[in-house]
Every structure is written in C-alpha cells, then in structure tokens.
Amino acid sequence: MDPKLFISVLTPLLPLVLSATFWVLWICRRDNTYVAQIAVAFLTTSLAFALQSFQLGLGHELSRFVANLLFLVAITLMISAMLRRRQSSAPLPLLFLIAAITMAGTGWFTWGHDDFSTRVIVVNSGLGVLCTVGVYALRQAGCHTVMDKLIMTILVMGVFTFFSRSVSEVLFVDPSLQTADILSPYWLVTSLTTIVYCLLVALTMLTAAALDAIKELQAQTQTDPLSVLLNRRGFEVRGAQLLNAHASSGLPIALVMVDLDHFKTVNDQYGHAMGDLVIADFAGRLKSVMAPNAIAGRLGGEEFAVLLPLTDTSGARLFAETVRTSGQWIGGLRITASYGVAQLLDDENLEHLLKRGDAALYQAKHGGRDCVRVAEDTSPAIAQRRPSYFRQAS
Questions:
Q1: What pLDDT, in 10s, does the model give residues 15-45?
Q2: Which CATH number fits domain 232-392: 3.40.50.2000, 1.25.40.10, 3.30.70.270, 1.10.8.50?
Q3: Is 302 labeled as catalytic in the residue annotation?
Q4: Does the pTM exceed 0.85?
C-alpha cells in the first residue's frame, strides 16, 4: 500500500473505531453521559484527520482551518468529559475563549499572512493551553483515587506533547524546509504521537468507565432500594472502614440504633404500600438531619442504624432527639420510633458496638417506646438476648 494513503486512512480510522467503542459503552449505560462525550470527542478527531488527509471538497486552506478547529473542539469535549466524570463542570467560557483566540491566530496565518510554521506553533500552543486549563480544573475537582491521578497524568502528557511541538518548531525546525505534506517529518511525527496519545486516552478512559461501572454495581448491592440507605451488608462494610480509619485518632464515634414503633400494625391495618411509604419517609428524615460524613443503613424491616463520626454520647443523643421530634406524621398516621445510643469504646469493633446499641434500643422499647436510651459503657455481652424480642413484635 502507498505510505501516504496508509497514513491518510489510519489517522482518521483509529479515532473512528475508538469513537464507536465508546458509543457502544454509552448505549449500554446511558446514564454515563461523560462516555458519550468521549465518543463525540473521538468522532470529532476522526473528522479532523479526514479533513487533513482528504480535504473533503473544502480546499487545502479551509480544510486545514476546519480540521484545527475540530481538534480544539475534541480536546474541549475530552476535558469536559473528564470533569463530568468527577461530577464537576468544565470552565467552558475560558476554554471557548482560548479556542477562539487560537482560531483567530490560525486564520490570520492562513489567509492574512500565510506562514505554515507559525500556524503550527499557534495551534499546538492553543491545544497545550486547553490541556493546562483542564489539568488545573481536574486538580480543583480533587484526585482521590488512582484512576483520578492516572487521568490527570494523561492530561499532563497532553500538555507536554502539544507544547513540545511548538518548542521544537521554534528551536529545531527550519521554517523554509517545513511543508504541509503528509509524509514530511513533521506530519509523520505528529501523526505517530497523536495515534499513541489517542490510544493512551482511550485505554485510560475505558478503564475508568469499567471501574465506575463496577463501583456502581457494588453500590447497588450495598444499597436498600426502598430507603436508598445502605443495607445491612453495606452498613457493616462502610462502618468497619470508618472505625478502622478512626482507630488511631482517638476521636469519638457514636452509634444510634432506631426501630419504628408498631410497624407491624401499620402493615397489617393499612397495607404494605403504606408501610413502604413510612420506611421511605423516615429514611428521608434521617438523611435530612445527619451530617454528610455520617453513615446510615436500614438493617432490616423497620430497623435503622446511624454511625456518627466526631460525635460523643451527648451529641448522638441530641441527634436522636432531633430525629424523634422532627415530624411524627407520615401519610396521615402518627409514627414514632425508639432509639438506642452507644459511644464507641477503646478497642471495640463494630459488632460489639452494635450489640450495645441494641441493648439501649431494647431498653427504649421496654421503657414505653418513642424515647431515647443510652447504652452503658460495659461489655457487649448484655445484648445477647435482644434479637428474639425484635423478631416477635415491634
């Protein structure tokens, strides 16, 4: 095959295939809009390379001008997708301003004062500045995981790639020998580095999308669909992680156990639809009172638990009283709950803390319901009898 034709076909074909890959991923999970943005970014890149290689009836100057514009759009879309994945907004006005200035310079050095070498510097500098803004925005959004840091690294590589082209053009390339031929050293190096960079970006974002999907599936398996709180499994996992994270800090952690009063009667007399409404409404009440760093779960039936970091017994009791008095009417019914409070002891694990919280909740149930009781700072063995009571009636 003719080398020129091979390069002309390869450069647009590769991003087109990558675009199709991300389109398929998006079709499978349409809620991941950042994946659709990546697909559009690669499609835009493919069209840009096609214009550079075949002009598509636009003529030499106009096809190159539009191709450069599409490259800028593709980078902007990719940066926006990376930020959207982090639930952060891209600084679009600034990105559009950079693209507009770059295209103004490109237009001038295309039709006002035709200078291929300067045009190369302007376009690559614009792309480099876009990536720099993207790196700053990602840094502001926070890089909390290994994948976040890898995406940041890929964008930093983009900054280095584009600015190094501009620097090389200034320091090492004789403008009089520079040409726009696709087989020239500049275009060969540009094509190769762009293909490699596209592959790196695609592999990184494919991995990110896969890990995000796995994380979402894990969250679904640990979430109670009715209350949208953690289920028992999720609460135990997240709770153990919280206790381990605070093990050496010496800071207080408190547990609040909650059990809705006479919930079986609600289901028997008013139906399970009303029971579901009560569960969902009470879960919303918990979430409206608890702090963002608290962990709440529905442990089963009408039983809930809340872990409160940086909270002692007094604070946990205040939290429980606030929930208890925040609104007791749901769907026209007066719904009350009983609360057991326990503060984490030294060298105590989650299982023992839950048992002491259960013991306090047991006391609240036998103390007349619709009240808060605090566990004694003693061995969790006192709670061994509790499960049989709650399985019979509430």
A1: 999 999 999 999 988 888 999 999 999 999 9
A2: 3.30.70.270
A3: yes
A4: no
